[in-house]
């Protein structure tokens, strides 16, 4: 099996270094308040696997992967915030999109304030929702439940959360 080629993997090491440098320069040019890019990453990888046995199986797969990521830190007076963005696969060469997203996320935090405690409806950004679920994902793992390492072990079919939300593990969902 062959996967689509990764556009970043076609670049030389020097071109990857220059790409990372350009991401940092573009971030600082995007907004004068950007004073640092703590993470500015260009990453590529190649993987090959082959399974062969005495029954005649001979299967192999080769895959390339690449990503760019940027964390932009902004400062205005005493306020400091940061924003993070990543691009993978075919979008891994979308440097401008990645830079603009990271800088905009950071700048959007200026003037933010805590909200009062209370019960209220909440709308999560897709990344925040993903991070929140990720913190609890281990307890949803069947292997962990079967080993008794999940607080949800033995609770299959029982209600464990408020109405209005559901987590479905469906390997056939597109």
Structure overview:
This protein has four helices and three strands; from the N terminus they run H-E-E-E-H-H-H. It has helices at 13-30, 95-107, 126-136, 142-146; strands at residues 34-52, 58-76, 79-88. The relative contact order is 0.12. The chain is α+β, with helices and mostly antiparallel strands. It starts with 12 loop residues before the first helix and ends in a 28-residue tail after the last helix. Helix 1 packs parallel to helix 2 (95-107). The longest helix is centred in the N-terminal third of the chain and has 18 residues, at 13-30. The chain has a three-stranded antiparallel sheet with strand order 1-2-3.
Major sheet details = 3 strands, antiparallel
Number of strands: 3
Number of helices: 4
End-to-end separation in angstroms reads 20 Å
Low-confidence stretches: none
Structural class: alpha+beta
Helix content: 25-40%
Coarse shape: flat
Radius of gyration: 22 Å
User: What string gives the helices and strands in order?
Assistant: HEEEHHH
Our estimate of the beta-strand percent is 25-35%
Average pLDDT for all residues: 89
Strand order of the largest sheet: 1-2-3
Using brief descriptors, characterize the structure shown.
174 residues, alpha+beta, three-stranded antiparallel beta sheet, 27% helix, flat
